[in-house]
Amino acid sequence: MTREGSTMMTQWSMQQRDPWDPWFNRSEKGKYELTSVEFTVTQLCNLRCEHCAVGEMLVTEEGVSISVEKLIQRLEEVETLTTLSITGGEPILNPKVVKETITPLLRYARSRGIYTQLNSNLTLPLNRYQGWIEDLDVLHISWNYRDAADFHRIAFEKYGRDVTPKAAAVLFDRMMDNARALSEQGVFVSAETLLSPFTAPYLTGMHQAIVEMGCARHEVHPLYPSDFARGMDLISLDTFRETITALLDKRDPSIWLLFGTLPFYPCSENPADRELWLRLHQEKNITVRHDPDGRNRLNVNVFNGEVIVTDFGDVPPLGNIQTDRLDTIFDRWLEHEASKRLHCFCPEARCTGPNLLVADAYYPDTDFQKRRAVITIDY
User: Fold this and answer.
1) pTM for the full model?
2) How confident is the model over 283-290, as a mean pLDDT?
3) Owning domain of residue 309
């Protein structure tokens, strides 16, 4: 992979070999290695979205962070590192976090040739995204709205006090304007839609809005039943399949479409699942990303140092960066019962198995270790 050249070259490079996808490491090395680290750098957020998978962790007052020097020290120990992700909360809400944690981490990653992603709701003034974003590879946003009314209901569902529709509309418009402006500046903006009973019927319209904002990529993922989203209904597998098929039929072929943590697999007994898997691997500008969580990534909480396998899962902390190396913690995870249960691998079909939350939600009684792909992908 190369990080040189224009945004389009970076997009092409990442699309050909998505650096967050554990498929490449597993297929080439014959094992999973720690290639990705995600830092939760804040627990503050100006929104309280109903679908937030870390909502119960959000606070109203920032804690004291572990020094960025300590974080970088632990990254230095990971020789296999290729990607770094930054998440929250809203990472850029606190200027101190941007200055003392985010900017040094991004500059360290660039000096080492590591791809970076930052998750933001993009609702803050545009100037808050200047001065550091030139060191970022992917600006990741959520897009689960048809209009300002949707945003008002969804983003402030758990806020705890009334927010006027007018105030919400200001943030919604700013989010769209920021996405357009940053995309025009050459920033790689990737917009993610979580499929739920609310978003599924309107996915193609949301896709068109993402295209009109100039985003480089549209990501489609399941709704993760965690934290605030734990009580939300999941769509059925049939509805999920029908929704994706409709999007494929009506998508803008010029934009990169990424499907992550899909609940469909090449070992399925359902022919429709297998046909969809084949189509997703045959059409241009479409990729299927296998789940980094639990295969090549760990999440670090910069306030208490705890390391978990995902920032919205139920697996208890596996270690602490105050005392443990990250690669040691990752080796510990590979011996975990949950890891062994899900780490199946079918190279002929380009599949590394299910996501932990998705498997528990849709396939609670399925032993994926006893299944095998019945189709082959040419790649």
Assistant:
1) 0.94
2) 95
3) 7-370
